[in-house]
Amino acid sequence: MASGVVTGLALDAIERAAPVIIGALAPEIQKLLASIPSNTVKVVPPAIDVEVAVAANLMRAMPAFSAEIYATVKSKIGIAVAIYATEHPGDVLESDAAWMDIQSMAVAAIAEEGLDTTRIPVSTLRQMVASGVELHRAGAGVRALTVGK
Amino acid sequence: MKIRNFLDRFLCSVASLLLLAGCAQQGGGLLQPTPKEIISGKNTIVPSAAALSMEATNFCNAQAQVDYAGLVLYCEGKTPTLPLSISTTYQTETSQFSCQVYGYTNSSNQLIVPQTVTLGNCPTGTAPAPIVAPSGTPAAAAKS
After folding, report:
1. pLDDT tens across B52-86, in order?
2. Backbone phi, psi, residue B47, to 5°
3. Within-domain flag for B99
4. In terms of residue numbers, what domain contains B69?
5. Is residue B33 part of a domain?
6. Which of B54, B55, B91, B87 is nearest to B71 (CA)?
7. Which of A53, A93, B7, B14 could form a Cys-Cys staple with B35, CB 3.0–4.6 A?
8. How far apart are CA A115 and CA B114, in angstroms?
9. A-interface mutation test, from B6, B30, B40, B92, most A Cβ less than 10 A away
10. DSSP state of B144
11. Mean of the pLDDT values across residues A44-56?
12. How many structural domains is chain B composed of?
């Protein structure tokens, strides 16, 4: 409980430092950040610049891009990683084959939400899958799922 | 131990906030791309108000600026058909285009975006004009 409070305070400190963090970004990234819908990305170092670039690409590739759509895309990728890891116990998720399967699964799930993924650059999806895999390894997000055959 | 616990929780919280952070990739032998490398090319743009605005203001895309203005006119009902450049550049036919879905109008068909967008982030400076001798021939030629 106490550490939860401390964590909350630490995150609050990060939020208060947002102007400083944004000020340290490259000018082109600052402009992109100003262009994407508010609350799409969290102003948290160290990789906010990468996340801004990814979000900007999605905004250019999806007709009605919003923070909610962005969250949906991220969620589908996270779930796809978890499904793959559940189906392949012991796989360290370091192979191209694993990443391609995860990406395909995620794209199908995003499309099932009625979202058109055809304009999203493959490299952008790849970057998102990379981050999803990293977060999975770090223990964030969904760890395991019951997969029905 | 308490410090470790705090650090774990803190890192986890930050990770869940980041969600998409471009963490260094541990396996696969790939290098992490830079944000500039991640930013995609012009062949992936949809003709939405947000995308074209971003293109014009952040990437100095003059075609996007023109297309934006054309779509505003179309969505206001001032032009009857979708601009030809839209269907050719973005492979988007009239039947696929919705002013609401693409962010130009609200549910009452009222325009919700500015009439025009400005070009921005363009390369500064212009190429120097060639030096011309008084006779009208280039200076280098005049010398010889």
Report:
1. 999 999 999 999 999 999 999 999 999 999 988 89
2. -80, 45
3. yes
4. 45-114
5. no
6. B87
7. A53
8. 26
9. B40
10. -
11. 86
12. 1
